[in-house]
Amino acid sequence: MPPITTAQFGMLVDQGAFDGQPGQIELINGRIVRMNPQGPSHSDPIDELTQWSFQQAGLKFRIRIEKPIQIDSLHSTPEPDLAWVTRRRYADRHPTPADISLLIEVSFSSQAFDRGEKLQLYAQAGIVEYWLVSVPHQTIEVFTSPHGPSFEKSYVVRVGDSVSPHCLPSATLPVARLFSNQVD
Prior knowledge:
Elements: H1 6-14, E1 25-28, E2 31-34, H2 40-57, E3 62-65, E4 82-85, E5 100-107, H3 111-115, H4 117-125, E6 129-134, E7 139-147, E8 150-158, E9 162-163, E10 173-174
Parallel strand pairs: 5-6
Antiparallel strand pairs: 1-2, 3-4, 4-5, 6-7, 7-8, 9-10
């Protein structure tokens, strides 16, 4: 079966083809992928990342939470947990890789997919920085310098460490913030 294009997928969405379907649906490499619904241990770090993103970068970037991005060349419309994109309205199109400064996926049960196929997709698309937050390991893996199906640079930060995106080095995130039960 030929891959579904982003235009075809957009038409299906506009026609309500997925209405009433539980969980998140994404177009990845031309096929429809259904994601697991989020449990509390998955959604809580997303809430913390959202708060931190708006506090640190809300005036410089548009912060998108679980909204589509479009990678036409790879027949993909993933919905990363967070994206820091060029500050503009996106009523006429989804952000493309050229608009994206930081993508963040929070991973609980989907770690193999987020570290495998999604990482390759984001690297091939030229996403400049990708953070993979591992809830079970309480780490953030940072990927930069996309090259082909991978990233040339990566490192892991753990509870006790802090991390800052390359696009805004002054925005410092203590990793422990994502995994503690304290409200800041």
